[in-house]
UniProtKB/TrEMBL annotation:
It holds the Pfam family BD-FAE. This is Esterase/lipase-like protein. Residues 96-282 form the BD-FAE-like domain. The keyword Signal applies. It comes from the Bacteria. Keywords: Hydrolase, Signal. GO terms for molecular function: hydrolase activity. Residues 1-46 form the signal peptide. The keyword Signal applies.
Length: 333
């Protein structure tokens, strides 16, 4: 069959089309490969992992209830979680090329009624990752007599278990077991200070539960009436509130030689949690000759996290924390 000029043109155009399609496919595959490599290597896209603190059906002090966990994000982008009855930790491992071996377990605040899980949790996890420090955001159970027995015991149980899990998985996350600290904000600061002072107390005492350092940001420390945050105290202690428990959970009274070093931040105009909470804890550490660094600022109020715009010199506090972490060997320059 003779090949006409029209047929030659048709086959030529078809060949050009197929070659163009093949080139386009190769280019797409190449771009996708580059994007995949970028995703794996980019610190800002590090893989997180959420782990239940306790095996299913074996959560201590737990009882059946109709309480349901709920998450809400407000117009300022602040995430608040309520009704927590299944505690977890979310791991943010530091990028391997930056990792210093240090790690921090972060306890968000919220008066033991909610968890401010973003600006006092995940935002700081990312900040630590950028500086080579692995971070773990603790979603601890919120005390409620409907969902648990002896509710005042529960947040500390969860914090102890979180610290143990981090230590037990240190090799997996490239962590030095002598460089694991705890950080807490407001009521989360009370939990962090309670872990720091109570890890060696009672039947559940454990060396694995001891933090190597603590970072306490506008923390609730005391339950004594003169300087306490009444809401945090009442939410934690619940119907078992007593003079004995008030003193037991007043952490300035529980500092011992086994309490780890601390870095503290507080604003003098904090009307929610009086600055005396940090001052009393600092003085208790000083009395026991435990290293401590405290930064007090004339204004800032409460609950700011890293949102310090318009709060004067308070904007310098993250830089001060950086310096402290570096001097203690938890961060590299």
């Amino acid at each position: 069959m003779p090949v006409t000029a029209e047929l030659r043109v048709y086959w030529f155009k078809r060949r050009l089309f197929e070659e163009k399609q093949a080139y386009s496919m190769k280019k797409t595959v190449h771009i996708l490969a580059i994007l995949s490599l970028f995703a794996l290597s980019s610190p800002s896209m590090a893989q997180t992992e959420t782990i239940n603190l306790w095996p299913e059906g074996k959560v201590p002090n737990s009882k059946q209830s109709d309480i349901a966990e709920k998450s809400d994000t407000d117009a300022q982008g602040i995430l608040r979680i309520s009704g927590v009855t299944v505690p977890t930790i979310t791991a943010y491992p530091a990028p391997k090329d930056k990792a210093t071996g240090a790690a921090v377990m972060i306890c968000p605040g919220g008066g033991y009624g909610i968890l401010a899980a973003s600006h006092e949790g995940s935002d700081f996890a990312k900040w630590f990752n950028e500086r080579g420090i692995s971070a773990f955001v603790l979603k601890y159970r919120l005390p409620n007599e409907k969902a648990m027995t002896h509710q005042h015991e529960v947040p500390l149980m969860d914090a102890m278990q979180g610290m143990k899990l981090i230590r037990q998985n240190a090799e997996k996350w490239n962590i030095d077991t002598d460089k694991i600290g705890v950080m807490g904000f407001s009521a989360g600061g009370h939990l962090a200070a309670t872990l720091s002072t109570h890890h060696n107390m009672g039947a559940k005492a454990s060396a694995e539960g001891k933090p190597n350092f603590s970072i306490l940001i506008y923390p609730v420390i005391s339950f004594l009436p003169a300087i306490s945050h009444g809401g945090s105290r009442d939410n934690l202690l619940g119907p078992e509130k007593s003079e004995e428990l008030i003193r037991y959970y007043s952490n300035e009274l529980q500092v011992s030689e086994q309490t780890p070093p601390a870095f503290l931040v507080h604003a003098m105009d904090d009307t929610g949690v009086p600055v005396e909470n940090s001052i009393e804890y600092y003085l208790a550490l000083k009395k026991k000759k435990i290293p401590a660094e405290m930064h007090l600022y004339p204004k800032g109020g409460h609950g700011y996290g890293m949102r310090t715009e318009g709060k004067g010199s308070l904007a310098n506090w993250p830089e001060a924390m950086e310096g402290w972490l570096y001097s203690a060997g938890y961060m590299k320059k």
